[in-house]
Amino acid sequence: MNNQDIRTILLKSPQEVGRRILGSLLVRQLDNGNKIICRIVETEAYDQQDIASHSYKGQTKRNSVMFGPAGHLYVYFTYGMHYCCNIVTGQQGVGEAVLIRAVEPISGWEEIFRKRPGKSKNELTNGPAKLTQALSIDKNLNGHDLLTDPLKLELLPEVNDKLITVTRRIGIRQGQDKLWRYYLNNNIYVSRLNH
DNA sequence: CCGGTGATGCCCT
DNA sequence: GGGCATCACCGGT
Questions:
Q1: Residues A61, A127, A27, A154, CA torsion sign
Q2: Stated in angstroms, how far is A43 CA from C12 C1'?
Q3: Which nucleotides of C are covered by protein (CB under 7 A)?
Q4: Distances (CA, A) of A37 to A16, A49, A108, A127, A190
Q5: Euclidean distance between the first and final Cα of chain A, in Å?
Q6: How many Å apart are CA A76 and CA A128, to the nearest integer?
Q7: Per-residue pLDDT reduced to its tens digit, A36-92
Q8: How far is the CA of A20 from the C1' of B6 (A)?
Q9: Which one, of A184, A170, A33, A36, lies nearest residue A116 by Cα?
């Protein structure tokens, strides 16, 4: 799939994109020359009308990347110690994005174990702040274009709806009624199965 | 396996 | 100064 096709897909709503990118790959090129590849298995959508979204009250210094071009990475710092990452969607000037909540390691296991020492296999990347540790994603990658190195989104064919579960979002206090969380059925890397 | 809780920094009001 | 799109660890089953 070429870059123009990927950009066209990411111009859609965060709900459509959140579902569409399940099964696609994140490819991380590390400074030491090694490469980590992971498959996206859990996402959540956040749009500007959504009280749970960082963009709800309009553009600020912190959330400004959400209002920029689709396909860039919005990285935020939370709870005093964790980074989480989102893929920006939609038109410029609109604040919306898809939170990556969990990924499944495909290759680069040795690098991931090094960044997540002492963790069992299924605890390496089954949460939004765990996967940023595993992939070395922090504020330095805020605003990064995901069609370029050192972190690329490689879009794969759409996954059949029958293989996807849709639920309420996790870890938020407001906006819990919205069914904007998407994950691959029975995947052991999903942050909270049966939820 | 499960629920409760402390850690910890920064943005926004 | 409040409140976080979380995690790791603890103790009880």
A1: negative
A2: 33
A3: 3-8
A4: 23, 33, 6, 16, 17
A5: 33
A6: 11
A7: 999 999 999 999 999 999 999 999 999 999 999 999 999 999 999 999 999 999 999
A8: 37
A9: A36
* Side chain identity, residue A108: G
- The whole-number Å distance from A46's CA to C13's C1' is 38
Reading the block at residue A122, the tokens are 């299924």
- How many other C-beta atoms are found inside a 10 Å radius of the C-beta of residue A175? 16
B strand bases under 7 Å from protein CB: 7-13
> Hunting for tokens 């994005």 — which residue is that?
A97
**pLDDT tier, A32 (very low <50, low <70, confident <90, very high otherwise):** very high
Distance between the alpha carbon (CA) of A92 and the C1' atom of B2, Å: 44
- Residue A153 · residue A87 · CB < 8 Å: yes
DSSP state of A54: T
Q: Which amino acid is at A52?
A: A
Predicted pLDDT at A158:
98
Evaluate whether A11 touches A150 at the Cβ level (below 8 Å): no
Helix, strand, coil tally for chain A in percent (to 5)? 20, 30, 50
- Whether A184 has a pLDDT exceeding 90, the answer reads yes
Q: Over pLDDT 70: what percentage of chain A? A: 100
Average pLDDT over residues A127-156: 98
Report how far residue A76's alpha carbon sits from residue A62's, in angstroms, rounded to the nearest whole number. Answer: 8
Closest CA to A185 of A166, A157, A170: A166
